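Recall that a protein's primary structure is simply its ordered list of amino acids. Everything else, from secondary elements to tertiary packing, is in principle encoded there. The following example makes that idea concrete.
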Amino acid sequence: MAQAFYRKWRPRLWEEVIGQEHVTHTLQNAIRNSRVGHAYLFAGPRGTGKTTTARLLAKAVNCLSEDIQNRPCDVCDYCLAVNEGRFLDLIEIDAASNTSVDDVRDLREKINFRPTQGKYKVYIIDEVHMLSTAAFNALLKTLEEPPEHAIFILATTEVHKIPATVLSRCQRHEFRRIPVIEIVRLLKKIAVEEKLQFDDDALVLIARQSTGSMRDAISLLDQLASTGQRITMDLTQAVLGTAPSETAVELVEAIIQRNLSLGLDCLHRAMDAGSDPRQFARQVVDHLRNILLSESGNAAQVDATAEMRARLADQAQRIAKGHLLEALQLFNTAVAERSSSWQPALQLELALGRAVGYTPVAVAARSSHCCACNSPARASALCPRRMYSA
């Protein structure tokens, strides 16, 4: 069975961890100065390196290299054992499937036994926010005063669900989303090493679709590599369910022109071509956001060609800021909408209709009734649809 790319290319040394230097440098210094803590909390979005960094820390504290500056060395017996998943003193627990207080009590009973192989027993508890309240309470005393041979590393994507009593007992490290340019750089390296044929713009699209998650990006590359074809923009769009970027630009142009017919034509053209409604809504949101950046004097932050920058500047001049913000809010809501409607494109059609029919509140106040709720203008000033008739 072929090994998945995200496992094959998992970092094995500190310098291979991308985009989290603020975390890896701190942990490296702690190891070099013999100041490793007994409990850590790694928090951040999925696929940003939390579990990988936890394994590197487990390797480093048990590494047999005599040079403390070189830990983990990735060549000693213990480092190789961690890489191969056979190091007995590295215990990984999935809190999503071990949520009860009995699971934590079982852990507390076993933690007092000395390490079997290495110097430290390292417990990695993934998705720790899934533990029950009783399980957290049972874990508190152990986190506060664990045996000298034990290190806890808690990982979570939802740090706000962790009790304050647990947070206060851990060294907290925040993992950030990985920049697109860093993701593209690694994807190119993997593609070259795996002898894949690819187009640069396709890798950029993969990186953007991953929304800062390196694991998601590598998994998407693995999925595209499985097709056995050259990784092109057309292939990537077909697999990801995205529409050509020009379609999203045309839809925004229809909003600026207040042309509902043209907008619906763009929308249905994208849906008929097999685009995923939520993916297409994300593309529209991205384009509207780029217009906002261009309009506010931050065009340098937009990753686009010179031609596209010119189009963004042109559209920014022809749309009122209130209209732009309203359209951005409407389509962003459509992205988050999880309605089970029988018509998948309905949320996009509603967002489009409201964006095209947008009227500023100051103008609406002079109108008599709201089209959405048919209430008097003064009462409907707060109507979220802001669609009025004279």
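The first strand starts at residue 39 and ends at 43. The chain is about 50% helix and 10% strand.
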